[in-house]
Amino acid sequence: MAAATIFLAVLPLLTAITTTAAAVNNSSSYHPTFQRLNVKETIRVTSTRPSPQVSEYHEEEEDGAEKNWTMKVFHREQLFSGNSEDDRRRRLDRRLKRDAVRAASLFRRLAAAAAGGGYGVDDFGTDVVSGMDQGSGEYFVRIGVGSPPRNQYVVIDSGSDIVWVQCQPCSQCYRQSDPVFDPADSASFAGVSCGSSVCGRLENSGCHAGRCRYEVSYGDGSYTKGTLALETLTFGRTAVRSVAIGCGHSNRGMFVGAAGLLGLGGGSMSFVGQLGGQTGGAFSYCLVSRGTDSAGSLVFGRAALPAGAAWVPLVRNPRAPSFYYIGLAGLGVGGVRVPIPEDVFRLTELGDGGVVMDTGTAVTRLPLLAYQAFRDAFTTQTANLPRAPGVAIFDTCYNLFGFVSVRVPTISFFFSGGPILTLPARNFLIPMDDAGTFCFAFAPSNSGLSIIGNIQQEGIQISFDGANGFVGFGPNIC
Predict the structure, then answer these.
(1) Which is nearest to 140 in space by CA: 122, 121, 165?
(2) What is the pLDDT of residues 155-203, one digit of tens each?
(3) C-alpha span between 228 and 468 (Å, rounded)
(4) Beta strands in 146-293 (DSSP E)
(5) Is residue 415 within 8 Å of 329, Cβ to Cβ?
(6) What pTM was estimated for this model as a whole?
(7) Of 146, 148, 138, 184, which Cα lies nearest the Cα of 165?
(8) In principle, which of 139, 168, 317, 447 could form an S-S bond with 107, CB 3.0–4.6 Å?
């Protein structure tokens, strides 16, 4: 594979469904019904610990007056996975524990926002589980911090509105793969005064010795604390100056391996928000599928918005501006729409419910009644497959030992306005072990909020046009 991250194929609309590509349909005239899951290949690919040639290569592409700033995106297992060959189940258990904390924090914080209190745009980030061998954060990019640039891995998080890295002097820092950033070695580092407008944009800002201080706390008691600063961030050959970042001098239990976090949320303090007119509020990502040696991509700039995508309106929640809500009308199994009232997925005027796209949550969560109807429709159409006991948060599992491939019904998201996204089979039936146990990768919640997680997003190009209020799916895959 070439060193640069290139989308692997252009997906024609309404082509035959395969196990490696999603189908995006801009009309409701055709609903594919079945596809094949390659059982042996899926187990083989996801059981091998990825070992990509991780480089620091980035691209900057010119398209007339527009610029694309492109970065590789790596799944955490490509960078920080253990060395043993039999640790698939342990990796899965850790991922699901991280995921449970993340989802619980989303439900709690967005419920507080709907109630009219407690939510701040800088007070949310990827949740972690303290004391675990590996911290949270599923997808990483490599950026340069300071002048000259010091290369660091950072977590990308569509639900966070702050950019931060660990900094020297460090009174308490967790282990990261690169040396901790030292502001004293950077010619472009500039502290932010307490009276500055930038400091005023932080919900939980403080002041010490005339310098603006920040604190971000997380769902399990972990945190990052430090000073706010303006610094240069470098993406390949592109240097972005005067980015407001948190310089964390006290950080507990965070993202083992990563230096910090690149917030991609919808608020003004996220990296996307700070870029403003430079990129027109536009970015696109493609999250690499689990177990592959290839990298995904993260691209900033309006030139990154693809022709041929299925565009769905973003739904704004004034009480939670960090998050990307979308209009979901329903769910389909085997080409048939499941009888779930559309109101189940609607964001209310008070900020309750709705559907959030999130890179930090792995498993898609659905309100209990919607999940039960959805699951029952799936099990009805897979009655010929041998069942297995539930695993962790998954209650619908199958024993596919000895199968080379199986025929399964398609799973589709019916978006408001007509577009339909049909998932590849590996995005909804995932292996739990090497013995052929596969589970339906959705989970119920007691909240009215739905979350579309990164397992369901994997391998699909997803583009955000914040200036015009749309999210696009396809047409490319990775």
Answers:
(1) 165
(2) 898 988 889 999 999 998 888 889 999 999 999 999 999 999 999 888 7
(3) 30
(4) 150-157, 163-166, 190-191, 206-208, 211-217, 223-235, 238-252, 260-263, 282-286
(5) yes
(6) 0.83
(7) 146
(8) 447
